[in-house]
Recover the amino acids of this structure.
């Protein structure tokens, strides 16, 4: 019922061009810069340019692999931003399907799919935990349970911070819920990866609590 009211006051529009009826219309869908895992760094997910050296920024990260559906450019970036609007729940299933597509060949690998939780203040601002709908879709598609294992502690806003500052800011940003049983293979799901510092901190918390390997998959890479 609430969803119906929401649809009436704010009908679904394309994140790219505002056309009515879909999260992304066919024309805008064609503009999404998708990342081909076959030509991306397996560790950090960055698209590799032939002939150019790649100094992987995530070579020491706590996670072993990242998959990104695409680049954080319009119209994908607009869809990611709209998904964070308070009360907006129509983008989650679609963005979750994008993440699942990026890591479809990992089906059967994870013992659990875990959303990277937003800070408490971010959750309060948006009214809900915006990464969980993505994790639920990925879990269903990959045939693994979705688990809420991570607690997010308050950290200052990451925007405008450089790589090292982000690393400092995210150190100790997550812990595992007391008493939680952490399975061996965990797939982390988030909406955006910038430097990988947030994913690194989340993966480190899971490894500390008993996970053996952590991989990550996101909608878009900045
Ligand atoms: Zn469009
Ligand atoms: Zn790399």
């Amino acid at each position: 019922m609430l969803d119906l009211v929401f649809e009436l006051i704010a009908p679904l529009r394309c994140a790219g061009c505002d056309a009515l009826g879909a999260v992304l219309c066919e024309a805008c869908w064609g503009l999404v810069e998708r990342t081909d895992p076959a030509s991306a760094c397996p560790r950090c997910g960055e698209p590799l340019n032939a002939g150019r050296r790649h100094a992987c920024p995530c070579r020491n990260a706590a996670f072993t692999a990242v998959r990104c559906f695409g680049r954080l450019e319009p119209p994908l970036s607009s869809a990611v931003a709209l998904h964070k609007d308070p009360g907006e729940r129509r983008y989650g299933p679609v963005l979750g399907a994008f993440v699942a597509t990026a890591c479809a060949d990992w089906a059967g690998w994870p013992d659990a799919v875990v959303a990277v939780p937003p800070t408490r203040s971010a959750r309060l601002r948006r009214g809900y935990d915006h990464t969980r709908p993505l994790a639920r879709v990925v879990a269903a598609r990959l045939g693994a349970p979705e688990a809420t294992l991570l607690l997010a502690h308050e950290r200052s806003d990451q925007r405008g911070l450089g790589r090292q500052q982000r690393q400092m800011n995210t150190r100790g940003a997550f812990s595992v819920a007391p008493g939680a049983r952490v399975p061996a293979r965990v797939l982390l799901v988030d909406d955006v990866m910038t430097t990988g510092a947030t994913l690194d901190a989340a993966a480190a918390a899971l490894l500390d609590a008993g996970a053996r390997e952590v991989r990550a998959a996101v909608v878009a890479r900045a």
The chain is about 30% helix and 15% strand. The chain has a mean pLDDT of 90. The radius of gyration is 17 Å.
